[in-house]
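Table S2 (continued). Query chain:
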Amino acid sequence: MYYGFPFAVPNIFSGAIAGLVPLFLLNKISTHLTGANDLALEITRGLPYNVTTQMDLALWDTSKQIRSDTISAQSFEKSKPDTLAHDYLNGRLPKTAQKAIANFLQAYGIRGVGEIDIGRPRWNEDPTYIMGVLQSYLQIEDQNLAPDAVFQRGEQAAEGAIAELEAIARGTFGGRVKAKIIRGAARRVRALAGLREYPKFHIVGMMWVIRQALLKSGRELVDAGTLERPDDLFFLYLSELEALAQGEKRDWKNFVSARRASYDKEISRVQIPRLLLSDGRAFYEGLTSGEGDSDTLKGSPVSPGVVEGLVRVVLDPQNANLSPGEILVCQGTDPAWTPLFLAAGGLVMEVGGMMTHGAIVAREYGIPAIVGVHQATTVLENGQRIQVNGSTGEIHLLED
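Corresponding output:
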């Protein structure tokens, strides 16, 4: 369920902020007491009341329902994601799979890759990505690697980090007071910080309603011969939409055609700028590799831990083909990518920072993560074995 701004602003935004402010305090305390903020970051693992985490675990439950039915499991083993998506939309999947996926999409089908762009399709319209993630989940045989087990270990690790930070504080001057502050701040983080995902979820829900209304109008304009496709409306400015609605005669088809061409050119960019200034300047450089060491790449550490695994470069999550335990290497992520995190062994991104979405969710799931790695998606190759150190920001290229 999602609500409008009159509910979201006083209830959800304020709750999320009340959970994030004590996290900044814990970062300061952890760095002061231990020289690093790793323990503070550990406290955010397995956060409850996070709609994105709940979505990922719901998708895992969907995969378990599919696995429990032989016919459904076989259909996912033999078919490609786009075929499965087509069969689902036409109601032709095996009964168990059809029902399980329908239940998931009823709750989360309003989401999609690049979902803050109202012009991008939602999972309700094209569930190809969801089918690919389900296939990845169905490959997980080791129950210790199951997403619900990973999340439970995260909750336990968070409690351990709280206890460890308290114990360290007690050994310092004013330790009992410091320990009490740590416990109170940590309790507030655990109770409220997960709410930070709700505002966007509600915004995306409202965008879904608006998108459906626009597509309905687009279909009417296609029938009238004004546009070529219903989603042509998303390539017009608001003032142009108003003019179109008022019946103003223009060559709308050529307008859209030119903008689609520009869009297709922009979306094919190989690298996303790390920084864009208001005057149009773009900066692409991330951190460079270690001086004189061609086998080490350097980035910003955002989720502690060390993991070794094979590289899987993903530019489009629709075609991720991520196997359990592989290191997900990408340009950047949004909430729609996070189902992949539950199968990934680690995360490397070209853009992002400590508080970007991919970094936050990686910490919650306990996945070592590094961001700001210059040209990671071109320097690293599929199948290459690497070590990701999410505490130091170093990526070591290993021998096969």
